[in-house]
Structure formats: C-alpha cells, structure tokens
Specification:
Elements: E1 13-17, E2 22-25, E3 30-35, E4 45-50, E5 53-54, E6 60-61, E7 68-69, E8 71-76, E9 79-84, E10 90-91
Antiparallel strand pairs: 1-2, 2-5, 3-4, 6-7, 8-9, 9-10
This protein binds zinc ion.
Zinc ion binds at residues 62, 64-65, 69, 84, 86-87, 89.
Amino acid sequence: MLGGKDKGKTGKVLGVIPADNRLLVEGLNMMKKHLRAKQQGQKGQIISKERPVAIGSVALVCKSCGKPTRVGFSVDGKTKTRVCKKCKATIA
Ligand SMILES: [Zn+2]
C-alpha cells in the first residue's frame, strides 16, 4: 500500500476487480460496519470488512524480480492478465 492510512502494509490479494481497477487485499482498507439489532433482544454487532483499494495505490512484490512493483494489465485476446510493470512477468 503506497498511501493512505494503511501505508506500508502488505497483505494477500483476495480478489481483483479489473473493471474497476481495484483490488481486495486482506487486512487493508478495513471498514468497520456497525450492525444494529434488527429485533428486540438481539445484539447489534460490529463487523470489519475489507474494501477494495485502487490498483494505483498498492504495490505488489513481484515473485519474479522480487521488487515492489506496480501491476499492469496485459490483454491477450479475451484474457486479461496482470503483469509486473518492471519485468513483465505474469502475476497469477
Ligand atoms: Zn517483476
């Protein structure tokens, strides 16, 4: 993560939303959500949930070159793959 409150943190990528250019990263950009009791006698609860972060604001440590890198997209026909912008290796 390059900016914001989670600067310097790393986490596992849980999912990619290519249409939005966003990533869901474990433990990053957590949002606390307060659930109110819907019925009497029930307790309200606070849940934390990751929110997708913009790809431009995270750095990924590339397994190929071992450097923090930005992720680019390479479109090969209909398949969109993520690639390391430094060494062009495909990132699974
Ligand atoms: Zn690389």
